[in-house]
Amino acid sequence: MNETAVLEVGREAMWVILKISAPIMMAGLVIGLIIALFQALTTIQEMTLTFVPKIIVIFVTIIIMLPFMLSSLTEFTQSLFDRMISLS
After folding, report:
1. What are the residues whose beta carbons fall under 8 Å from the beta carbon of 87, sequence distance 6 or more?
2. What band does 46 get if pLDDT is binned at 50, 70 and 90?
3. Rounded Cα distance, 58 and 40, in Å
4. Long-range contacts for 27-33 (Cβ within 8 Å, ≥24 apart)?
5. Are the C-beta atoms of 27 and 53 separated by less than 8 Å?
6. Closest Cα partner for 11 from 80, 74, 71?
7. In sequence order, which residues have a C-beta less than 8 Å from that of residue 23 and are 6 or more positions away?
8. Mean per-residue pLDDT for 46-67?
9. How far apart are alpha carbons 76 and 27 in whole angstroms?
10. What is the DSSP letter of 43?
11. Residue 31 Rama label (left phi>0; alpha psi -120 to 50; beta)
């Protein structure tokens, strides 16, 4: 395996990581902004107010996006195994 193949596998791995984590991060970001806006408008400065909605939204996002995340990871793993087989 030469350097370009290793860099290609690393690039694909980083892309898969971004594809898998992006929906969860975006959901956390959006709900965080909504809660921050709500706190700023109502002057409620309770620090624990952000945790429960974020946890619920992230958990629901994981459940909804799990088939997409699993298929992306399975596809990457299959391509990685195919490359390993082609080496021998």
Report:
1. 1
2. confident
3. 22
4. 27/57, 27/58, 27/61, 28/54, 28/57, 28/58, 31/57, 31/58
5. no
6. 80
7. 61, 65, 68, 69
8. 92
9. 24
10. T
11. alpha
Q: Of 15, 5, 35, nearest to 75 (Cα)?
A: 15
Q: Distance between CA 43 and CA 36 in Å, rounded?
A: 10
Q: Please report which confidence band the pLDDT of residue 10 belongs to, taking 50, 70 and 90 as the band edges.
A: very high
Residue closest to 21 by CA, chosen among 74, 79, 61: 61
Run of H or E including 8: helix 3-42
Please check whether residue 28 is in contact with residue 50, taking contact to mean a CB–CB distance below 8 angstroms: no
The two three-digit tokens of residue 40, written as one number: 């700023």
Cα Rg for the chain, rounded, in angstroms?
A: 19
- Token pair, residue 38, equals 């709500």
DSSP 8-state secondary structure symbol assigned to residue 15? H
Q: Looking at this protein, which amino acid is placed at residue 47?
A: M
